[in-house]
Specification:
With 383 residues, this protein is mainly alpha-helical. The chain is built from 18 helices and no strands. The termini are far apart. The model has no long low-confidence stretch (mean pLDDT 92). Residues 9-313 form the Citrate transporter-like domain. Keywords: Arsenical resistance, Cell membrane, Membrane, Transmembrane, Transmembrane helix, Transport. Belongs to the CitM (TC 2.A.11) transporter family.
């Protein structure tokens, strides 16, 4: 509810800017044309992920992975790492943070191994693993739209930094948690889905959706189609699941307010100082400067407003990806650096798993600079 309140206040700020002529009707029309399809995708893919989770898809996959691990925590963790990466890349960081976290934490608890490495894996990979595709993160969608890049063109530029960010994140988790990850556990028998038909429909829908998200079709179209398929399936089999809370309305209000407010700041040139800080150029140091400013800004105010404020100063694909490295992969120090982190912590609290914010921030201070440097240097080497 807090982010909805913040978003409502920002919408009022944007409305005032329009009323006093800071934003013209043409400015508003252009902004709406840019962001409405993106918000439509966010709503649709959230509904898809929520209903797939209700069908037991994530739980069943995680339990099958536990069976494949054959009692070895390190194998289970590597499989969860792969699942979290795939979930983040194709279904967005929020899906991994919100829907996968309670599943893998419960899995670790049932196996009687520490849930902490698994919890850190989901939240860190949700952020650091969200570089590869436009659909992985709302900031990526904005960047791809601004640069008019096909998803595969986007992935060609982001592949090396995305791989570097994931590998460094995984290495830090293993190095800091070796005893917990080298433990053994007694595997349990995987339970079948409660409704096999809903499970099958959800699985097939996601399998069909994933390639469509990189096909070049506007992503809100296949995501909306997938949402409609699952809504119809649940309306027939489990109508009680269909409730308004499936729609991420708070995020929509928050994002809409940010778009308007930051657009107004750009109109009065209040963000020009960020251009000086972000610098220019494409040398490794120049790209590290952009990424560093992005990471600092994201950890101060949140990654979405940080991206929106700095976007005009990353005016080509390489500098834009450097900015995304900062605001996506670098936003893991403060709790508010990304909305996914706050949602992840709420899920941990509901699962009775305790990671204090001071401890989280200290760990973030360790991993964020390593990921930032590795990913940015990988970008510079391949650009």
């Amino acid at each position: 509810m807090r982010i909805a309140i913040v978003g409502g206040v920002l919408l009022l700020v944007g409305a005032a800017a329009a009323l006093f002529g800071v934003l013209t009707p043409d400015d508003l029309a252009e902004l709406a044309g840019r962001v409405l399809p993106i918000l439509a995708f966010v709503v649709a893919v959230t509904v898809v992920a929520e209903l797939a989770a209700e069908a037991g898809l994530f739980r069943v996959i995680a339990e099958r992975l536990a069976a494949l691990a054959r009692g070895r925590a390190i194998v289970l963790w590597l499989l969860v790492l792969a699942l979290a990466t795939a979930s983040t890349i194709f279904l967005s960081l929020d899906t991994t943070a919100v829907l996968l976290t309670p599943v893998v934490v419960a899995l670790a608890a049932h196996a009687r191994i520490s849930p902490i490495p698994f919890a850190l894996t989901t939240v860190w990979i949700a952020n650091t693993g969200s570089l590869l595709l436009p659909v992985s993160n709302l900031t990526n969608l904005l960047a791809a739209e601004r640069l008019d890049l096909h998803p595969l063109q986007f992935a060609a530029i982001t592949a090396a930094p995305a791989a570097a960010a994931i590998v460094v994140t995984a290495a830090v988790i293993f190095v800091t948690r070796p005893r917990q990850l080298l433990a053994r556990f007694e595997p349990e028998t995987a339970s079948p889905p409660e409704d096999r038909l809903l499970f099958a429909v959800s699985a097939v829908t996601l399998v069909v959706l994933m390639p469509l998200l990189v096909s070049g079709v506007e992503v809100w179209i296949p995501a909306t189609g997938a949402a409609i398929v699952l809504v119809i399936a649940f309306a027939v089999r489990r109508p009680a699941v269909l409730r308004f809370e499936l729609v991420p309305w708070q995020l929509v209000v928050f994002a809409s307010g940010l778009f308007l407010a930051v657009e107004a700041l750009h109109a009065v040139r209040a963000t020009d100082v960020l251009g000086v800080l972000a610098g220019t150029g494409h040398s490794p140091l120049d790209l590290l400067q952009v990424a560093g400013v992005g990471a600092f800004s994201a950890n101060v105010v949140n990654n979405l407003p940080a991206y929106l404020a700095l976007e005009p100063f990353a005016d080509d694909p390489v500098r834009m990806v450097a900015l995304l490295i900062g605001v996506n992969a670098g936003a893991i120090i403060t709790p508010w650096g990304s909305l996914a982190t706050l949602l992840w912590h709420a899920r941990l609290v509901s699962a009775d798993v305790e990671i204090s914010w001071p401890r989280f921030m200290l760990l973030g201070l360790l991993v964020a600079p390593l990921v930032l440097v590795a990913a940015t240097l990988a970008l510079a080497a391949t650009a």
